[in-house]
Design brief:
single chain; alpha/beta; Rossmann fold; three-stranded antiparallel beta sheet; 20% strand; elongated
């Protein structure tokens, strides 16, 4: 289970912050009271002797009760403003489908040790970020979808499906996206789960099958965002399968189309040229898709702190002067 993580502080009733004006007012009143006591002071010949008999109090100790009282006012004023903390909490019943390209271009070594291995390792990072309750499915594809797993909480099966791929064949991204979409929104019905998303990793242009851009438009209507990751570098090549003596084949990624897919579906596009960056992207996606932000009121904490500070100020002032600051 993912622990809620604090993200930001806000206020449900910010007008309550006006109570903080009590602090400068209290300081002005305290300064005025001290000037008044000085104005009415009288000479007493034995004052030095009495001070020695009573013992001295360090300057900073005389100010501690006042400082605590002011801090208490500040805490109570913040409590009046109903402070809220924004936290990331797990999404119950989240469902994600990983669509992974294992076409022949995934054998390119521009991403160490090669694109396919880097993608598999990044998927491990992604799964590690997800709560155990998150359902994960897989659609592996090249010439067409050839390795599918319905969303499940058995993440070990997900790993096995991903690791069973080998780099071969063409790139049918549109067909794979459609299978993933049918899994999350069967029969064209809008996805009913609280969080349904597709994560698509590909390293090249679609070379066969339906247009993935059109599938992305349908995904938007069905409430399933597609997060895309374009893997590889522009100058990447693979050996020519016809003959080792033939010129190598260029296999640049296609970030433009993947960005279009993400934008049309309501997702977000990423690009990666190295394994470390790819793992970082997948880690971020794992957190994004498995959590949601909620505001939680923390008024009681501020109110409690204010009362404790006020009590401490009173206790520290009594031994010195016999009254509250």
């Amino acid at each position: 289970m993912t622990v809620a993580t604090p993200l930001a502080l806000s206020f449900g009733s910010p007008i309550g912050l006006l109570a903080l004006l009590a602090i400068p007012v209290a300081l002005l009143l305290l300064a005025a009271a001290r000037r008044r006591r000085t104005s009415y002071a009288i000479r007493f010949p034995a004052a030095t002797t009495l001070a020695l008999a009573a013992g001295s109090v360090s300057s900073w100790r005389r100010h501690v009760p006042t400082a605590l009282a002011l801090a208490a006012i500040a805490a109570l004023a913040l409590a009046l403003a109903k402070p809220q903390r924004t936290v990331a909490v797990p999404v119950e019943g989240a469902s994600v489908v990983l669509v992974t390209d294992h076409s022949g271009s995934m054998s390119a070594t521009d991403v160490e040790p090669d694109r396919l291995t880097a993608a598999e390792e990044a998927a491990e990072t992604f799964l590690a970020k997800l709560p155990k309750a998150t359902r994960v499915g897989v659609v592996a594809y090249s010439d067409g979808p050839d390795g599918t797993l319905a969303p499940t909480t058995d993440h070990d099966r997900v790993r096995q499906t991903i690791e069973a791929q080998s780099a071969v064949g063409a790139t049918a991204t549109g067909e794979a996206l459609q299978v993933a979409l049918d899994t999350l929104a069967p029969n064209g019905r809008k996805a009913a789960r609280p969080a349904s998303a597709i994560v698509l990793l590909s390293d090249g242009k679609t070379t066969t099958g339906r247009d993935p851009v059109e599938v992305a438009k349908t995904a938007k209507k069905l409430g399933v965002p597609v997060y895309t990751v374009a893997l590889g570098t522009a100058d990447a090549t693979i050996p020519n399968p016809v003959s080792p003596l033939s010129p190598p084949i260029a296999v640049p990624p296609d970030p433009e189309t993947l960005k279009q897919i993400a934008e049309l579906s309501g997702g977000r596009a990423f690009t990666s040229g190295d394994a470390g960056q790819l793992r970082s992207i997948y880690s971020s996606l794992g957190s994004r898709l498995a959590t949601k932000h909620e505001d939680r009121e923390i008024t009681a904490g501020f109110a409690g702190a204010g009362l404790v500070l006020l009590l401490a100020a009173g206790l520290l002032s009594l031994p010195r002067v016999g009254r509250l600051p």
